[in-house]
Amino acid sequence: MLENRRIVITGAAGGLGRTVCEVAESLGAATVRLDIAFKEPGDNCHEVDLTDRAALAAVLEAVGDYDGVFNIAGGFAMGSDTWESDDEDWDRMFNLNVNTLRTVLKVTVPHLLARGRGSIVNVGAYGAREGQAAMSAYCASKSVVMRLTESLANEVRERGVNVNAVLPTVIDTPLNRRDMPDVDPAQWVAPADLANVICFLASESARAVHGALVPVRGLS
After folding, report:
1. How far is the CA of 205 from the CAs of 2, 153, 197, in angstroms?
2. Residue 90 belongs to what domain range?
3. Cβ(212)–Cβ(205) under 8 Å?
């Protein structure tokens, strides 16, 4: 499905990111793994702060050509009531989910446009299709991700670049199992299942798909 493709994957050291890398490679892709830190660095692992545009540009210039970008980097945190939200919590959600994405797009979109073909897949959130109690900062930040996906898709779809996003519910990661021990993880989205959808959206089979926000809900 992804034979002879080279994919830049952000958040590659995280639970979902590692699985996405593994699935993409199993489907024939070469991966360029980006994260702020790796416990086990490898030849294709690059440590970089995704909010630092100059640093990211330097890393990708050294990497060379690539065919696609999977923006997996991001984060989630419950908050307080909207009127009580701390600025620090709000800024953290936007830094993790919006500023990282905008920096990556600023660096990678010109490259994909110059080569005349490419795919970008972002990660929104199913729950952020509407506001949720005590989650205003998270929902707002992921809503921005979804609107950026749609806007960018309309800007570049006639220039050979596909831009789409997946909208997962709760993902079955060790962190979520730790934080929600009373919830049945069988209802959640398996990382490999989400990775398969991400990889499909970057494949030739999805060449006609632009600006899609694809729900990936598992049983939740």
Report:
1. 10, 17, 12
2. 6-216
3. no
Q: In Å, how far from its chain's centre is CA 42?
A: 21
CATH number at residue 28: 3.40.50.720
Helix (H, G, I), strand (E, B) or coil at 33: strand
How many Cα atoms within 13 Å fall on the side-chain side of residue 212? 18
Return d(Cα 178, Cα 186) in angstroms, integer: 14
**Chain centre to alpha carbon of residue 173:** 15
Structure tokens at 22: 């593994």
Q: Looking at the 3D structure of the chain, how many domains does it have?
A: 1
SS3 label, residue 213:
strand
Residue 21 lies in a domain: yes
Establish if 11 belongs to a structural domain.
yes
- The pTM (predicted TM-score) of the whole model is 0.97
Task: Please state, in angstroms and rounded to a whole number, the distance separating the CA atoms of residues 90 and 85.
Answer: 7
Per-residue pLDDT reduced to its tens digit, 40-89: 888 899 999 999 999 999 999 999 999 999 999 999 988 888 888 788 88
For 53, the token pair is 């545009």
- Is position 63 within any domain? yes
One-letter identity of residue 149: T
Q: What is the pLDDT of residues 173-219, one digit of tens each?
A: 888 889 889 999 999 999 999 999 999 999 999 999 999 999 999 99
